[in-house]
Amino acid sequence: MNTPPCKPFIEVANIYKSYGSIAVLKGISMTIQAGDVACIIGPSGSGKSTLLRCLNGLVSVDRGTIRVDDFSVELLQSEKELVPLRHKVSMVFQQYNLFPHKTVLQNIMMAPIQVLGHNKQDVHERAVKLLAKVQLSGKENAYPGELSGGQQQRVAIARALAMQPEIILFDEVTAALDPEMVQEVLNVIRDLASEGMTCVLVTHEMRFAQQVADQVFFTDGGVMVEHGAPDRFFNNPSDPRLKSFLAKVL
Amino acid sequence: MLFSLDFEWLADPLYQDWLLEGLGTTLAITGVGTILMLIIGVVGAAIIHFNIPVAKPLTIIMIDLFRNTPPLVQLLFLYFMLSDLGMSYTDATTGERIPLLSGFACVVISLALYNGSIAIEVIRSGINSVPRQTVEGGISLGYSRAQIFRWIELPIALRLTIPNMTSNVVSLIKTSAQAALVAVTDVMFYATQITLETFLNLEVMIVLWLIYLVITTLVVLLAKQLAKALTIPGFGAGAMK
């Protein structure tokens, strides 16, 4: 963590995105270093989730450039071109987005086998280890509908990790969970961060952001209002909008 | 009247043979028809889902054409149209003109098209009820649209629509009785033959009625077992009570 400034791992420059007449992103730029944990905070509708989805090409931008390692994301068009990017950048969602008709183990193993063409035996080994890592050993043959929200979200994290990504995007992954389940999910993310995984989180967990993040970004109204290291960001915010937002949520 | 019903004809080996042979034909028609119907349903739903140019409007026209007209009219149209179009060949040895498509084939095709059109809409409704988030999960893992259809949307849709699809299969079985009208020797055909010989209209129709009831009941029971085996735990209403 806190690597010396070198070529950033993720570089977003001046991106614009509109849905019809509604402008969601209005010239957002940000850079994230490899191994960093970056948290994006901001009020609802400020474009946080859209920004996150731009990073793995789930949402295409109207204008601007997005570079993730060697990929120029805004130039990738076809499904085939996007596969290597999806390999590098995994995503975990607010609603878990697991496959309801597949068991926990199948959920984790499907994409590495079917998309990446990895050997089934290797993937199985990897999946069992990942389940142990998210403390769900023994749930291999359960279906997502039989698990609690916190357990489903940990399966979703294991599924994302099975792709052996270099970056994981977390989109409000604790927003749909009971308070006591929030902690079990945050602990898993904390472990990942300490292992040096590059994590980008959209979150409302301010305390978590303060503890774990290397950089915090605050978006409002589709623009990047302020960003910085968590200490200065939370204790000494300069922008009045950030001040009033923090006063409300802290 | 009710107590003077005469079922002695059932003991006649000839009539037993007729009914069994007819039953075999009915089961063959419905078996092949059901398989073709499912294929049409999946392919048609895929064509509409993927918005394939030219094929999509044609599929929609086909659905409207076959779903909204009487299946008997379709069968007779198909039967007479094909022979009118000269789709027949001359047997080299006997010099006899033989239709290229038999009555059996016409019945199977017409059932496959009629119930297949309904199947397309049934499967489409299932695909539309797959949560958007589930699909997004697939996209984020690098799945192509085709892979998502094959591995995620279709398996969930088929499970969710087992009750509707069962009604469609039962409808196909019932509609197959019209095969007798194009001289296909199904169970309906032979039952009519028996009434012509015995004049026991009511008795024969009671037996025929029960035969269809047994077939459809078995199909429904089978479908329930299938639904039970394929239930997605904690998800939607795939299972039939």
TrEMBL record, chain A:
Transmembrane segments: none annotated. Belongs to the ABC transporter superfamily. This is Peptide ABC transporter ATP-binding protein. GO terms for molecular function: ABC-type amino acid transporter activity; ATP binding; ATP hydrolysis activity. Residues 10-246 form the ABC transporter domain. InterPro entries: AAA+_ATPase, ABC_ATPase_HisP-typ, ABC_transporter-like_ATP-bd, ABC_transporter-like_CS, MetN_ABC_transporter-like, P-loop_NTPase. GO terms for cellular component: plasma membrane. The lineage of its organism: Bacteria, Pseudomonadati, Pseudomonadota, Alphaproteobacteria, Hyphomicrobiales. Keywords: ATP-binding, Cell membrane, Membrane, Nucleotide-binding, Transport. It is a peripheral membrane protein. It is found in: Cell membrane. Pfam families: ABC_tran.
Automatic annotation (TrEMBL), chain B:
The keyword Cell membrane applies. Its main location: membrane. Residues 23-223 form the ABC transmembrane type-1 domain. The chain crosses the membrane at residues 27-50, 71-89, 101-123, 169-192, 204-223. It is a multi-pass membrane protein. It is found in: Cell inner membrane; Cell membrane. Keywords: Amino-acid transport, Cell membrane, Membrane, Transmembrane, Transmembrane helix, Transport. One of its GO terms (biological process) is amino acid transport. GO terms for cellular component: ATP-binding cassette (ABC) transporter complex. GO terms for molecular function: transmembrane transporter activity. Belongs to the binding-protein-dependent transport system permease family. HisMQ subfamily. PANTHER family: L-CYSTINE TRANSPORT SYSTEM PERMEASE PROTEIN TCYL, MEMBRANE COMPONENT OF AMINO ACID ABC TRANSPORTER. This is Amino acid ABC transporter permease.
